[in-house]
Predict the 3D structure of the following.
Amino acid sequence: MGRWEPGAAGRLHEAAMELYVERGFEQTTVAEIAQRAGVTARTFFRHYADKREVLFGGSEYLLAELSRALGTAPDGATPMEAVAIVLDAVAELLGTDREHSRRRQSIIDLNAELRERELIKMSRLAGALAGGLRDRGVAEPEATLAAEAGMVVLRVGFRRWVDSADAVDLRGEMRSALTALRTTVTDQPASRKPDQPTSRKPDQPASRKPD
């Protein structure tokens, strides 16, 4: 087969995903992926550094999209408003094929090495987002807090999107998770108006949980 046969990367990706689901990530070899894709193992390594890169090869593009989206945030945007713009852009990028995302996530969930790699990816995204916020003039620790909060929203929204039969829109799930986070950190239940007092009297101490 030709060295740069058209579509080789796509066929390798699909073959790897099929085999990871059928046999498991650890049990699948590069030779088996290449054979199913109809190419040589040498061709596999021209497109992917190793088996894991089939699942994480888009990380650099995701980082670039994150930086691009952050650059579109208005100058007067608060850190979390800027993060919300980034999350919308990430959702648009990741939310195009839920069945593929489900399959990929099921493979990662079954392998500790892949779960660790996913956490490393999320840490890189958080670091890049925090750096971008600092470049916009956001001080620390606000920049890091906003970036890490954004990654929490991404993980929660993405997980609900891939796990729930009702969650059809990744951007909607991320926005819902962001709203829930804001409610949680302000300790303000959604059913109570901001100026509505709690039932506890002002001079009544809060109950202490057991150590």
